[in-house]
Design a protein that fits this description.
The protein has 616 residues and is an alpha/beta fold. It starts with a strand and ends in an 18-residue tail after the last helix. An 8-stranded antiparallel sheet has the order 3-2-4-1-10-9-11-14, with helices on one face. A 6-stranded antiparallel sheet has the order 5-6-7-8-12-13, covered by helices on one side. 35% of the residues lie in helices and 22% in strands. The chain is globular and about 75 Å long. It binds 5-amino-5-deoxy-1-O-phosphono-D-mannitol. The site of 5-amino-5-deoxy-1-O-phosphono-D-mannitol (M6R) has 15 residues, from helix 9.
C-alpha cells in the first residue's frame, strides 16, 4: 500500500517525483523518499520518516540533481517508519536504488543467503534484499543489463511487488516491474513516467499503459518504453488506459480537505452513473459478460468485499433479494479466503465490490471464485485496476478519484451500481416487468437532488458533532438496510475521529450493547419513516431510559423522533426504502468529519490506515 513513482526525461526529476508522491500519499504516509541519478552517474537521495511535505522541505535544501529518478511514500509493513527504513534502498555498492510497494514473503531466507555471501543490510525492511539481488545479477549473469538484472532478481522473489529501479552505471535508464501490486507507465514528449496509479500521471498525459504481472518496462529519456515479459519477449500491445478525467479532479479545488470535496461530489457522481442506463432493453448494463439467458439462470449471488465496500455488499443483498429474488451471501474477503468449504451452485454469480480494485484480500477471493467456475463481476472506481482486468465484466462507478482514505462517494456510487445490477437481474429473470424496473430506475434518479438537499443541511451535522465532545465511545443503531447505514456511519467515525464506535441492528441492542449506555452516552439512531419505524423508536426509548443522548437520522416531519432526540439529522422523504441508505449516509459522513475536525485530526489521512490495502 505504498506509492511508487519514477521519471526519466529532459526535466529535473525531483519536482515531479515530489508532486507525484504528494498525489499518491493516500496510499501510505509514514515516510517518504526520492533518489535521482545525474547524467554523470551520481546518485543523490533524500528520505525521511514523516509525510511528503517534510520530504519536500529536505529535498529543497538538498537539491538533488538529475533527470532520472524514483520516489516512494510508505505504509510500513516490515520495520518501523524511520528514516533508515524509508525507501529508496540501495545495494551494497550504493549504485543501485530501488523503491517497492508490496511484500517480499521470502525475504528472510534471501537475506540470510545474501548475508552469508557478504552483503550488509542497513534496514529492517523486506525490500532491501531487492537491490542486493539486482546487484548480484548486474555483476553476474545480467552483465550490466539493468532490465535483465531486475528480471533475474525478481525470479527469486516470492510475494508482491511494484518496483522502480535506477542505477548509477546507466544514468537515464529507469526499469519498472510489477507482480500483484499496481503500476502504470506513460510516454510523453518530455520523458517517460511510472506510477502506482494514474493519478500522478493525469497532469502529464491522458494515455497510460498498464503493465501485466512480471512484465518489465525499460524507460528512457526520449520517452520510449520497452516492455518485455518474464521470458524477455517483447510485449507489443500492452493494455492502454485513457484517463477520462481532468487532473484537477484529484486536486482540492478550494475545499479544505478531500473528504469534504468527495462528500460534496456525490450527487454528480450518481447522476453520471445513472445517465443513459435506461434503454430499449430496460436497464443497460453492457458491462455484464452474461447473456440474458445466463443472467436469468443465476440462482445464487456471492458478494465479496472489505470495509466500506462490504457495507455496500450488505445493501446490495437487500436490493438483489428484494427485486430479483435471488439469494445473496455477502462475504468479508479476508474470511472467505480461509473458509475451507464454500458451496456454490452451477449458476452462482460472484460480485466483487472494491473502490480501488486493488484490495489484496478481495482479489484473492475473486480469483478463488473464478477458479470455482463462477462468473465474476466487479464494481469498482479505478480504471484498469486489477479487479477490473481480472473480472469477466466490470461496472466502473465513475465517481472520479477518491483521495481521502475514508471512502464516501465510492460508497454511494457502488450502492447505486449494485441497484442497477439488481434491476437488470430482476428484468432478466422475470421477477419484474419492464414498467416496474423503469419505475425503480426513476426513483433512483431522485437520489442526486435528495443528496443535494442533505448536503445543504450540513449545519445539522456540525451541531450534532458537539454531542461527541469529551466522549470516548458511541453506539450506532438501525434496522434492516439501515443497520448497514449504522455500520457505515460507525466505521466513518472510528476511522477518522479515533472514537470507539459500535454499530448494531437496533433490535440486537438488548442482547448486550445496552450495557454500554450510561448518562450522556451518544447513540446515533437511523430511524426513517419505514416499515420498522415503530420498532426503532422503541429502541430509542430504551436508550433514553438509561440516560443516553440520542441523535436521530429521520425523515422530515417525524414529530415523534423530534421529541425524543437531542439532535435530528433530517432527510427528505424517499420513494423507496432502499434509497434512504444512499442519502442518509451523507449526514453520517459529515458528522464523522465534523467530530474529527473538532478533535484536530487530519480527516484525509487517518493514522495507521491507507487507501489501498494491497497486503493480506
Ligand atoms: O478499495 P476497496 O473498496 O476494496 O477498499 C476496502 C476497504 O479497505 C475500504 O473500504 C476501507 O474500509 C475504507 N477506508 C473505508 O472508509
Amino acid at each position: 500500500m505504498c506509492g511508487v513513482v519514477g521519471y526519466t526525461g529532459t526535466k529535473q526529476a525531483s519536482e515531479w517525483l515530489l508532486d507525484g508522491l504528494q498525489t499518491l500519499e493516500y496510499r501510505g504516509y509514514d515516510s517518504a523518499g526520492i533518489q535521482v541519478v545525474s547524467s554523470s552517474g551520481n546518485l543523490h537521495g533524500v528520505k525521511c520518516a514523516g509525510r511528503v511535505a517534510t520530504l519536500r522541505e529536505r529535498a529543497h535544501s538538498a537539491n538533488p540533481v538529475g533527470t532520472c529518478g524514483i520516489g516512494h511514500t510508505r505504509w510500513a509493513t516490515h520495520g518501523a517508519p524511520t528514516d533508515g527504513n524509508a525507501h529508496p534502498h540501495l545495494d551494497g555498492s550504493g549504485r543501485i536504488a530501488v523503491v517497492h510497494n508490496g511484500i517480499i514473503e521470502n525475504y528472510q531466507k534471501l537475506k540470510r543467503e545474501l548475508m552469508a555471501a557478504g552483503h550488509t543490510f542497513l534496514s529492517d525492511t523486506d525490500t532491501e534484499v531487492i537491490p542486493h539481488l539486482i546487484q548480484e545479477a548486474w555483476d553476474g549473469p545480467a552483465k550490466g543489463d539493468l532490465a535483465a538484472a531486475v528480471r533475474n532478481a525478481t525470479d527469486r522473489l516470492e510475494g508482491s511487488w511494484a518496483l522502480a529501479v535506477i542505477c548509477a552505471d546507466c544514468p537515464g535508464t529507469l526499469v519498472v516491474t510489477r507482480n500483484g501490486s499496481p503500476l502504470v507507465v506513460a510516454s510523453t514528449p518530455d520523458g517517460a513516467y511510472a506510477a502506482s496509479d494514474v493519478m500522478p500521471l493525469a497532469s502529464v498525459t491522458s494515455h497510460v499503459l498498464q503493465l501485466n504481472d512480471r512484465d518489465i518496462a525499460t524507460l528512457t529519456p526520449d520517452g520510449a518504453i520497452r516492455i518485455t515479459d518474464r521470458d524477455g519477449r517483447v510485449v507489443d500491445h500492452p493494455t492502454a488506459i485513457d484517463i477520462d478525467w481532468d487532473a484537477s479532479a484529484a486536486k482540492l479545488g478550494g475545499y479544505s480537505d478531500f473528504m469534504a470535496k468527495e462528500i460534496s461530489e456525490q450527487p454528480e457522481a450518481i447522476e453520471r452513473l445513472l445517465s443513459g442506463r435506461l434503454g430499449k432493453h430496460g436497464i443497460e448494463l453492457d458491462e455484464l459478460s452474461l447473456t440474458r439467458e445466463e443472467l436469468a439462470s443465476v440462482d445464487k449471488v456471492v458478494i465479496i468485499a472489505c470495509g466500506t465496500s462490504y457495507h455496500v455488499g450488505l445493501i446490495a443483498k437487500a436490493a438483489i433479494e428484494r427485486w430479483a429474488r435471488v439469494p445473496v451471501s455477502v462475504e468479508y474477503a479476508s474470511e472467505f479466503n480461509y473458509t475451507e468449504e464454500y458451496l456454490v451452485t452451477d449458476h452462482t454469480m460472484c460480485v466483487v465490490i472494491t473502490q480501488s480494485g486493488e484490495t489484496a484480500d478481495t482479489l484473492t477471493a475473486a480469483r478463488r471464485m473464478k477458479g470455482m467456475g463462477c462468473n465474476v463481476f466487479a464494481i469498482t472506481n479505478v480504471l484498469g485496476s486489477t479487479a477490473a482486468r481480472e473480472s469477466d465484466g466490470t461496472l466502473y462507478i465513475q465517481a472520479g478519484p477518491e483521495v481521502a482514505v475514508a471512502s464516501t462517494k465510492a460508497y454511494t456510487a457502488q450502492m447505486v451500481g449494485s441497484y442497477l445490477l439488481a434491476l437488470r437481474l430482476a428484468l432478466a429473470n422475470g421477477n419484474m416487468s419492464r414498467d416496474e424496473v423503469e419505475k425503480h430506475y426513476r426513483d433512483l434518479t431522485q437520489i442526486p437532488d435528495i443528496m443535494r438537499e442533505v448536503l445543504a443541511r450540513r449545519w445539522q451535522d456540525k451541531q450534532a458533532a458537539r454531542l461527541f465532545r469529551n466522549q470516548r465511545s458511541a453506539l450506532f443503531l438501525g434496522r434492516n438496510c439501515n443497520s448497514t447505514t449504522a455500520y457505515e456511519g460507525a466505521l466513518k467515525l472510528k476511522e477518522i475521529s479515533y472514537l470507539h464506535a459500535e454499530a448494531y441492528p437496533a433490535g440486537e441492542m438488548k442482547h448486550g450493547p445496552i450495557a454500554l449506555i450510561e448518562g450522556s452516552f451518544p447513540v446515533v439512531a437511523v430511524v426513517p419513516a419505514d416499515h420498522v419505524h415503530d420498532k426503532t423508536v422503541s429502541n430509542i426509548q430504551e436508550c433514553l431510559a438509561r440516560g443516553a443522548v440520542v441523535i436521530g437520522v429521520a425523515t422530515d416531519g417525524d414529530e415523534r423522533v423530534a421529541k425524543l432526540c437531542s439532535e435530528v439529522l433530517w432527510v427528505p422523504p424517499v420513494a423507496d426504502e432502499l434509497i434512504f441508505p444512499a442519502v442518509a449516509i451523507i449526514h453520517l459522513q459529515l458528522l464523522a468529519r465534523y467530530v474529527a475536525r473538532d478533535r484536530g485530526y487530519d480527516v484525509d489521512k487517518p493514522r495507521n490506515l491507507a487507501k489501498s490495502v494491497t497486503v493480506e
